[in-house]
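COMPLEX REQUEST
Ligand: zinc ion
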Amino acid sequence: MARVGGYRRISDDDLNTGDGVRTQGEDVDDLATSNGWNVVPYEDNDLSAYKRNVKRPAFEEMVKDLKSGVIDGIVALDLDRLVRQPKDLERIIDIYETSKRRLVFDTCTQSYDLTTSEGRFMARLFVNIANKASSDTSRRIKRHQLDKAKLGEESGGPAPFGWDPDNKSKLWDKEAKPLRKAIEDFIAGKRVATIAREWEAAGIVSRTTGKPFNQTNFSRLLLRPRNCGLRVHQGEVFLNEDGSFVKGVWEPVCTIEEWEAIGAVFQSRKVPGADRSTKYLLSGIARCGICGHKMRGQRRKDGKHAYTCVANQPGACGKVSVVGEQTDELVRDLVWVDGERATGSLKLEPTAWARAKELEDTETAIAALRAQWKAKEVSNSTFIFMVETLEKDLDTLRHERAVFNANTAELEAKSVNLRGSWKALTLEQRRRAIRHSLSAILVHPAGKGKRFDPSRLEPLPK
Ligand SMILES: [Zn+2]
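STATUS: Structure written out below.
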């Protein structure tokens, strides 16, 4: 008579009473008995198998016993209770595939016979989907942030400059008054540097650094959407579904019109750090050779531009800079040559969409699942659950492929003669042509000489 491990696990979803484990135990015992097997119980209580760092002692012991021959198989309420991480399943499958003994396997809800390849296929599919559902739970926490944004509620963290440290929805006169005045002065034509100097003289300092504001920080302060009561989520002003602004729950310093005016003034004056729209060929394509961060195109005092590793992003070193003009020309020439070389082979080797295999696999999985369901090897509820998840993936992938095809068709029509048509291309099209050939350009730190040194540039091909 086979001795099987009867596995029970109460999860976070169950009430924390232990009843869950007991009920599972009865079901598991009944199933084993009906198969004519003896049960050795293994119990993990109140642990989430999804949290990667949570150890399940009983599960670990059972796997060890299965491997060493103490038990000849596993019975569980369902696959979901037994494993949630694909790697847990792989460990068990590995034992089933390599054991010289005849092993058995069963669950109360669905028979996945891990001794056959069909059973393993189904089990893998199921665990992958269940695993995704768990990831969705972590995503739900992020959702919570989104919901707060939708209501215009405050995100976490201390009160920003201008608001009361003890109640961040209320303005704090000590800071809000000078800020209000600065906004009016700026719109009236006063320059950032002038106002920043006035603030320094008045002893107004940043709350985070305790130091006076420099021009960049001061510009940022003026441009904060929060000033006019707009909520930012993930770096962008948050909009309602109808496209209108989400209004924050805090007191604003200025009106939306004033805030927009500030943006317009910055645009026209080109204050450093103010204009985020891409104006340079290699912004974000050039990467710092020391820290790997994207370099930003900036206009220098002499009116020419340079690409610079800007130290205001986390982890960026701020040490590397390269002249823009020569770099642009060099990369452009490189892309022309690559385009000419590629034109000949384009017909043979059309640009492939990177996720094609994934799409194909999803289609195959749906077909296989459908076949098994028709053969009544899968229950209706399992089938619906799994097929809906897969179909959602399929829709996303197909949409992505359509967008990709549209983009490459446009580009390949143009790439026939990049050299000849370069002038007619918009900056965005040129940038796309570059990205078509190169994934990035590494810019290594400068040596001693002052001249432009092409060997500092290391193009990374696609
Ligand atoms: Zn850097």
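REMARKS: The chain is about 50% helix and 15% strand. Residues 231 and 248 are 5 Å apart (CA to CA).
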